[in-house]
Predict the structure.
Amino acid sequence: MSGMLKKMSKNTKNSLITYGIVIAAYIVMQILISTGSISSLLEGLMVPLCYYIILAVSLNLVVGILGELSLGHAGFMCVGAFSSAFFSKCMRDVITVDIVRFLLALIIGIVVAAIFGILIGIPVLRLKGDYLAIVTLAFGEIIKNLVNVLYIGKDSNGFHFSTKDVLALDMEPDGTVIVNGPQGITGTPKDATFLIGFILILITLFIVLNLINSRDGRAIMSIRDNRIAAESIGINITKYKLMAFTISAALAGAAGVLYAHNLSTLTATTNNFGYNQSIMILVFVVLGGIGNIRGSVIAAVILTLLPELLRGLDDYRMLIYAVVLIFMMLFNWAPKAIEWRERYLRFGKKKKEAVQ
């Protein structure tokens, strides 16, 4: 066994450690839930924890691996959430097997988000830096506002669409309103579970880590490090940038599907799919370490659970939360902290070699 571990590459070892941490955390949480050792509020955060991890890992693919700042991640999540919720509500009485309906909704959410990723990525990825961030931010806000003015109903004559109000749908008396503007979609089946979320996290990690360690991943990172040099050796810049952006959008769509099927009512508010949500996902990426997939997972877990764990400290809860944010930022990015970490790692490596 030790011989096999020695033969493994550093990337493979790191990937296995990341999978191991996620699997161990899931087993521990399942034991705590089954023994009733955690509160119902904390148990209710397990599915949100899963989709926040997926969002953080997928955004890190664009921000950390591709090296482009995207602020429209919540927009792709919104697209995946509403397209899947629309399908699930329409098919609730047709497809009675919950897991089959959810898997089909998941595929639809991922595909629709990926299509939007391609459509937005083709013009947007020609921009760089602040300009790309502004345009992706605008995309997220446009999607949210479009959903808020969209009314869709269904009767025996088929679907009816309007951007005015419910009365403008002109449906038969027995018709059903599926998307009700700012009130969103009500009655989506709650098919999302902690187990499904855990499986989606493993799939997301498998896709992202394998992409990073592949030939395509190295091409994407070469674009991040030096675009001109990458182009000079024949790397297709547009192809690889669009690949990373589309995969990231598709995974955000999967997180949106999980989000939509964890709630009975889905609305496109500012807190759910707006600027604040995109910034929060970016905070997970930055604090976990840009380009560090395992760091994104850990940061998403800490920053999602921390407000709930500190709920008993009403007066100091947000103060402690802010201190933790500052500490994580300093630990990851302060030059002295980076120097200390590198020294500690060198010392640990030398000690290990001396023991062997």
